[in-house]
Specification:
Mean pLDDT: 95
Strand content: 35-45%
Largest sheet: 6 strands, antiparallel
Strand order of the largest sheet: 1-2-8-11-10-9
CATH architecture of the largest domain: 2-Layer Sandwich
Helix content: 10-25%
Order of helices and strands: EEEHEEEHEEHEEEH
Radius of gyration: 17 Å
CATH class of the largest domain: Alpha Beta
Low-confidence stretches: none
Number of domains: 2
Shape: globular
CATH superfamily of the largest domain: Heterotetrameric sarcosine oxidase
CATH topology of the largest domain: Alpha-Beta Plaits
Length: about 190
């Protein structure tokens, strides 16, 4: 019998949390993530099914919506990433697939991405050194794809924080970039 222990994307038994000046960077591994892509000719039906599962509208272009349990962000025409707490939704993809049926292609993305939550004051100042997004103009409820340290990432702007999703295989490189830039700014 194997004696396996779960590890975070950064390779530890507990999520990493770094506070640098007014900013805190937190590794957030406790989220289930699933992609939903409407099939050709089924766009309206799959979007309605997704909205039924989520209990709120699917986000539009470059949008992010959140509800009591689920949140989602737009990643392309009729394609979304859906998030939910892993503790209560370890089978998020199966749950969404059951509702969307053959109207959408649903893929579990939980193990493919690392999530970092950034909180604190002056986040736009930090982000202007990390990527080409103008966080000062980016409104809450917006999600964009960008490049951070040569990595394709998703950046979600919340009212008082920022979420960054990057490739799990490059978690340490992305974390290093976030911490290094925070130290240079603050």
């Amino acid at each position: 019998m194997h004696d396996l222990a779960p590890m975070t994307p950064l390779g530890a038994s507990a999520p990493r949390r770094d506070t640098i000046g007014p900013v805190t960077i937190t590794e957030a591994p406790d989220w289930a993530l699933t992609s939903v892509a409407a099939r050709l000719g089924q766009e309206a039906t799959s979007q309605a099914a997704l909205e039924k599962v989520m209990g709120n509208p699917a986000p539009g272009i470059a949008g992010h919506t959140s509800g009591a349990i689920f949140s989602a962000f737009w990643i392309g025409p009729h394609i979304w990433m859906v998030e939910a707490p892993y503790a209560t939704h370890p089978d998020l993809a199966a749950q969404i697939k059951a509702t969307c049926a053959d109207t959408a292609s649903v893929t579990d993305q939980t193990g493919a991405w690392v999530r970092f939550d950034l909180t604190g004051d002056d986040l736009p100042r930090l982000m202007e050194r990390l990527c080409n997004l103008d966080m000062g103009k980016m409104q809450a409820g917006t999600a964009r794809r960008t490049v951070i340290e040569h990595l394709g990432c998703y950046v979600i702007r919340h009212a008082d924080s920022i979420t960054i999703y990057g490739p799990r295989s490059s978690a340490k490189s992305l974390h290093h970039a976030l911490v290094t830039v925070a130290k240079s700014v603050f």
